[in-house]
Design brief:
The N terminus is likely disordered. A hairpin with a 3-residue loop joins strand 6 and strand 7. The protein is globular and about 80 Å long. The termini are far apart. It is built from 15 helices and 17 strands. The chain is an alpha/beta fold and 562 residues long.
Length: 562
């Protein structure tokens, strides 16, 4: 960005101030500061290294060219004893930890001492490894899979694993990009697409196992992968492509039909909310009144009025109830906005009106529309646009059309076969999990019914097929939890959203104790639980006993799906 050009009306002192503030903002994006007065390695002071610090730094001298399916190189090794967090990271890795199923809270002031390794796999998969001290290691390794279009080794991604005692690895998915949804890297880059699709996960699994052996002097006990959205997809994809890589898989909101959602659904949502002049019809602020109306109309469809839409499929919500009356200007929608909202709830179609994709936005998902499908201002770019344009130009097809391609000209019905070539790279909707089952692996999948990015029906439909193919053995190795009121990410939702699903997965893998339920909670700023609700393996549902607080999990039980 050329600050002199964009702010030429400022005085020189103001220009320098602006540059400084911009630089500070960029530095604040780093999730935690590992370069401190107590970081031992290249570029640190000359104080003598402790034995543990020497063991860490010495890993940089090891050769890992033959460890994984592709040569690996450690480019930097540091032993960190005083890693302090910024306020930015306190929020981000707290949120990361929720979607990774191992909440660490938001009151941690300092990270545990650890060995920090940076490096890459050939040709272009960067990684970050955090190794806790030997006495803190839980003997397990974990890969925290990247989300969105990946493209960066997010510093906060492996932190929850470190705090929980795992030897933890994260990658950038095999490329750099402008986070979160820039797909330009995929242009004529098949190897990059393969790395992004599944290979980065495999390489990470291979390397973290060898590194932990070299550092701790013994083999790991168990290996795990966790992630949400694209990271959730990475877990299911690993079960299908490299079923022996991970003993335990935690997949939250997995995008199983990746090709279609990015090439068909996102363009549909963008088009539905865009006038001919390119301006948006619905803004983020409008989603608040839509969500409120949806709750009022659909809350009791599950027999319990609790501010949560328990059965979105049973709800027929017509946003016309919000149509502005004569003279009304607030807390209502114009006819144009009503029509757009209706389209959001409809099946995506092509210009000829033919259904192109089987999953609309579910009623109750409106909180997720904020900024994603409905921009925060008239001039703001929404994710549905950046995903659509970038994906169709650089990632969707066998031959990338490139920057001059009119992505809105793609016909998802007439040209659907163009998406087939790369489905084997991106998608993970094969229900045959025989190899993963036979390897002894265990998998927990969690998907919120209020997900406004990836409709949970994509996951439940796939799981129905898994039940058919795998039969009675299904419950012995894989469970799905479909959670009412939960959105796409780790933010507070209508229903409780925090859970210890990774600990439940560990008990299943390590003690063969399958979860009977997962308890989701909401906490206040002091980490005190204010609301709890149990959820049970799909297709079972949660039933209120009729007595006691609806905010207490003990007053709910399991019932068969009606």
């Amino acid at each position: 960005m050329n600050f002199d050009h964009q702010q030429s009306n400022l005085e020189p002192r103001e220009i320098m101030k602006t540059r400084l503030l911009s630089a500070i903002s960029l530095l604040a994006l780093t999730a935690f500061t590992s370069q401190s007065t107590h970081a031992h390695g290249h570029g640190s002071d000359n104080e003598p290294l402790s034995a543990v610090a020497k063991a860490c730094v010495s890993l940089e001298r090891n050769s890992y060219e033959r460890t994984a399916d592709s040569p690996a190189v450690i480019t930097n090794a540091q032993y960190v004893t005083d890693a302090k967090k910024s306020l930015k990271s306190q929020f981000m890795f707290g949120k990361r930890s929720i979607v990774q199923g191992m909440p660490v809270g938001e009151n941690i002031k300092e990270l545990p001492a650890h060995c920090r390794l940076e490096g890459y796999f050939a040709p272009a998969v960067k990684f970050l490894i955090l190794l806790p001290e030997k006495d803190d290691w839980n003997d397990d390794v974990i890969y925290t899979a990247c989300d969105a279009f990946c493209g960066a080794v997010e510093e906060d991604m492996p932190v929850p694993g470190l705090v929980k005692g795992f030897a933890t690895i994260a990658t950038d998915g095999g490329h750099i990009n402008k986070r979160p949804f820039d797909g330009t890297w995929g242009y004529n880059n098949r190897q990059g697409e393969i790395d992004f699709g599944y290979r980065a996960s495999h390489l990470a699994s291979q390397l973290i196992k060898k590194i932990s052996f070299d550092y701790y002097g013994k083999n790991h006990e168990h290996s795990y992968i966790t992630g949400f959205s694209k990271g959730g997809l990475a877990g299911v994809k690993s079960a299908l492509t490299y079923p022996k890589d991970f003993d335990g898989i935690l997949a939250r909101a997995p995008v199983l039909r990746y090709q279609e959602i990015n090439s068909i659904k996102m363009p549909w949502l963008y088009s539905a909310n865009t006038r001919e002049d390119g301006s948006p019809i619905l803004l983020a602020e409008d989603t608040k009144i839509i969500h409120k109306a949806a709750i009022e109309n659909c809350d009791d469809k599950d027999g319990l009025k609790d501010g949560i839409i328990g059965k979105p499929m049973a709800c027929e919500f017509d946003p016309a109830v919000l149509l502005c009356k004569v003279g009304q200007k607030e807390d209502c929608l114009t006819q144009e906005q009503v029509d757009t909202t209706r389209k959001f709830y409809e099946l995506p179609k092509n210009k000829d009106g033919k259904v192109a994709y089987p999953y609309p936005l579910p009623v109750g998902s409106e909180k997720d529309w904020y900024g994603f499908h409905a921009p925060v201002s008239k001039d703001a770019v929404r994710y549905s646009e950046t995903i659509s344009s970038s994906y169709l130009r650089y990632m969707a097809f066998e031959q990338d059309p490139g920057p001059f391609y009119d992505w809105q000209s793609f016909d998802p019905v007439a040209e659907a076969d163009k998406l087939d070539a790369l489905k084997s790279i991106y998608d993970a909707n094969d229900p045959d999990l025989t190899a993963f089952r036979d390897s002894g692996g265990k998998m927990i999948i969690i998907h919120g019914l209020a997900d406004g990015a990836v409709n949970s029906r994509m996951t439940t439909d796939w799981f129905d097929k898994v039940l058919e193919v795998m039969g009675e053995t299904t419950s012995s190795f894989v469970q799905l939890y479909a959670v009412p009121g939960n959105q796409h990410g780790g933010s507070p939702t209508d229903g409780p959203h925090i859970n210890e699903s990774l600990a439940a997965l560990q008990s299943w893998v390590e003690k063969n104790i399958a979860p009977k339920k997962l308890v989701f909670t909401r906490k206040d700023k002091d980490e005190k639980v204010t609301h709890s609700r149990p959820h049970f393996p799909y297709p079972s549902e949660t039933n209120y006993s009729g007595k006691g607080s609806i905010s207490n999990a003990k007053n709910f039980s399991r019932q068969a799906k009606k």
